[in-house]
Amino acid sequence: MLLTFAPMEGLTGVVFRRCHHRYFGGPDLYYMPFVTPTHEPRFTERQLRDIAPENNKGVPVVPQLLTQSPENFRWAVLSLASMGYCEVNLNLGCPMGTVTAKGKGSGMLRDPFALESFFEKAFSEPLPIAVSVKTRLGWRNEDEFEDLLRIYNRFPISELIVHARVREDFYKGDARRGAFARFLPGFAHRAGYNGDIVMTRELAELRDAFPNLHSVMVGRAAVANPAFFRMARGGPACSRKELFAFHRTLFEELTEAFGSVGNTVGHMKQYWFYLRTLFEGGERIFKKLLKTRRAGDYMAVVSEIEETLPLQPEAKPLWWKPSSGSRSES
């Protein structure tokens, strides 16, 4: 069973991937946050900074595309193949309103007829590399996946990775693992699972429950605990020394990439939303961290965290939020 790092926009970009792989490693693949191809058949300089193979040297990565245009999808896949990539992932899971309003991401799940038409055109001629798909169970209701799976099964998809929520769940509530189990026997392709894997022991539970599962994708828990994948393979938990060495390197390399220490301070706070769950207590300190603006003040608070807060072997899912409405799970 492969272990893969989920793409998280704004968090798991090229600098993070390089630093994480250098200090901790562990995942078989890092899926890149999506890039959106346009009608002009070339990637922008900004997109290339993240997806260019030379910038990801030594890191096992898979680029991800976000588009509702089969024509744009095809040129982008062909371009990525020419760069030497062996797989591309299609994002049908992003739930954000700015994405779904344009009919992209999980917005494509609203209209199965349009989705089927997209695939018919996208696969109208053979593509030179594997195409995997990241999807949700549906737009409003998990039962929608019956029709979606029928569509997916028609086409030469290399792997179907399911975030076991519907779009209207966003990232709240518990993942619908029961629905995933109900539909899994009908998969014509290799299956991947994503959703609410927090503790490394849960990977063994998934392997026992779904012995034919090809991969498990982990996102938030692996940002919260950078040693997650290493621990999953029997390695040691994250030590205080390496965690803060990783933090310093990430800070320095992001500063170089942004060309601004102020932008880096703001960006690092996004990581601390998850990293804080690896420590016991510290609510007052983390509130102080969020209020910092200058690099010196930020680093002073980070030093306080390093010197005073107990480190836990695994993170606690403090990011979990209840679903906005009631639902039944099969």
From TrEMBL:
The keyword GTP-binding does not apply. Residues 5-231 form the DUS-like FMN-binding domain. Gene3D superfamilies: Aldolase class I. Keywords: Flavoprotein, FMN, NADP, Oxidoreductase, tRNA processing. It is an enzyme of class 1 (oxidoreductase). It comes from the Bacteria. Its cofactor is FMN. Pfam families: Dus. Its EC number is 1.3.1.-. Catalyzes the synthesis of 5,6-dihydrouridine (D), a modified base found in the D-loop of most tRNAs, via the reduction of the C5-C6 double bond in target uridines. Belongs to the dus family. This is tRNA-dihydrouridine synthase. The lineage of its organism: Bacteria, Pseudomonadati, Pseudomonadota, Betaproteobacteria, Burkholderiales.
